[in-house]
Design a protein that fits this description.
Layout lengths: L1 E6 L4 H4 L13 H14 L6 E4 L3 H14 L4 E2 L16 H6 L3 H9 L12 H17 L6 E6 L1 H12 L17 E6 L4 E3 L6
Parallel strand pairs: 1-4, 2-3, 2-4
Antiparallel strand pairs: 1-5, 5-6
Helix pairs in contact: 2-3, 6-7
């Protein structure tokens, strides 16, 4: 079976280079264009189900895709972005220039065990994403294609943990850009990246 991950389109907070976790931010005009283009391409996928994070930017993205594919998005909070806590909505520069800079550097070196203030660790994100992947792919038929609308963090976790088999490579894993897709094939035992394949 195939799982096609789609990152939501660019948001206003993305354009301002902000940490954006559980807070929401509307899609920019560029983001809307990214979503429309992705939806057209995904129209050829003949997907059986459409899953999405329950945050607004993903729901907005999924609704566009759903209209073209004739699918109703199924919302799941486990597909949410990392909770950045007190850093949510702040620009990278604002966090770096604050008294939290030393803490930020510690977090960047070990996000698996250290969480942003009032946020969550990468391991906590990974636990919910892993649970979703295990449950969802177990109930998906071998000949089916599903589309998953999510965020940069969960998609990167899937790449490092499920495609590379090593979650410690999270920061070394290339991020999928807003409106970008990643297709993985599940053979019942492992995932493989379907490089350069059309949908």
């Amino acid at each position: 079976m195939r799982g096609i991950w789609l990152r939501h389109g660019e948001t206003e907070a993305n354009a301002r280079r902000c940490y954006l976790g559980h807070l929401d931010s509307a899609l920019t005009e560029k983001g809307q264009e990214q979503v429309s283009l992705a939806a057209e391409l995904l129209g050829e996928a003949k997907a059986a189900r459409l899953y999405t994070s329950d945050l607004g930017r993903c729901v907005e993205t999924a609704k566009v895709v759903g209209r073209i594919l004739g699918l109703e998005p199924e919302l799941d909070s486990r597909l949410r972005e990392l909770d950045f806590g007190q850093w949510d909505g702040k620009t990278y520069e604002e966090v770096m220039s604050s008294r939290n800079r030393a803490f930020l550097e510690r977090w960047y070196k070990n996000p698996f065990e250290i969480a942003p203030p009032e946020g969550e660790t990468l391991c906590e994100l990974g636990q919910r994403v892993d649970e979703w992947v295990e449950q969802t792919f177990a109930k998906t038929r071998s000949n089916e294609t599903i589309i998953i609308v999510s965020h940069g963090g969960p998609i990167r976790w899937f790449q490092s943990r499920w495609l590379r088999g090593d979650s410690s490579t999270y920061w070394q894993t290339e991020s999928v850009p807003p409106g970008g897709t990643l297709m993985a094939v599940w053979d019942g035992k492992q995932f493989t990246l379907n490089k350069g394949a059309g949908v």
